Amino acid sequence: MLRGNAVIGQSGGPTCVINASLVGAVKAAKESVCIEKVFGMKFGIEGFMQEKLYDLSSQPDTVLDGLRNTPSSALGSSRHKLIPDDFPRIKAVLEKHNIRYLFLIGGNDTMDTIQRIEAYCKDVGYELQGIGIPKTVDNDLFGTDHTPGFASAARSNILSVKEAGILARDMQKVDQFVIYQTIGRDAGWLAAATALAKKDPSDAPHLIYCPERAFNTEEFIHDAKSCVALYGWVSVVVSEGLLYEDGTPVSASQSIDKFNNTEFGAMGGASAAINVHAILREALGNARGEFQITESLVMCAIDRAESTDLEEAYQCGQEAVWLAVQGVSGYMVSIERVSSTPVTFRFGKTPLEEVAVRAKTLPENYINERGNFVTEEFIEYMKPLISDLPEFASLKDIYIEGKNNDF
Question: Active-site residue among 86, 138, 145, 186?
Answer without folding.
Answer: 138
